[in-house]
Amino acid sequence: GIARVYGLKNIQAEEMVEFSSGLKGMALNLEADNVGIVVFGNDKLIKEGDIVKRTGAIVDVPVGLELLGRVVDALGNPIDGKGPIKAKRARVGVKAPGIIPRIS
Questions:
Q1: Measured on CA atoms in the order 60, 54, 52, 21, is the torsion positive or negative?
Q2: In terms of domain of life, where is this protein from (predicted)?
Q3: What whole-number percentage of the chain has pLDDT above 90?
């Protein structure tokens, strides 16, 4: 879901935030008086008046062949019980390569 958050000054687009419940989200819609946060998880855990903190980090996720056959959550954390994933990380907002560079 999307949460409307007021009072987050100088937040960056795609910056990770953390709600008081421990739930994480990503700043997406930056407006003059509020920020639209994409919630990574059960948005029913968020209540009006909850504290939301900036992390200062831009959202990134693991990428690469190490993810094949694995089950991960929205942030790339393994949820299949097979241990950690050792992969390089990339920002989620990076523009995809054009068609020609992707042809192998």
A1: positive
A2: Eukaryota
A3: 80
35 and 70 in one domain?
no
The answer to whether the beta carbons of residues 29 and 35 sit under 8 Å apart is yes
Domain count, the chain: 2
Q: DSSP per residue over 48-93, as a string?
A: TT--EEEEEEE-EEEESGGGTT--B-TTS-B-SSS-----EEEETT
Indicate the residue type of 6: Y
Is residue 14 in a domain? yes
**53 and 12 inside one domain:** yes
Question: Are 54 and 64 part of one and the same domain?
Answer: no
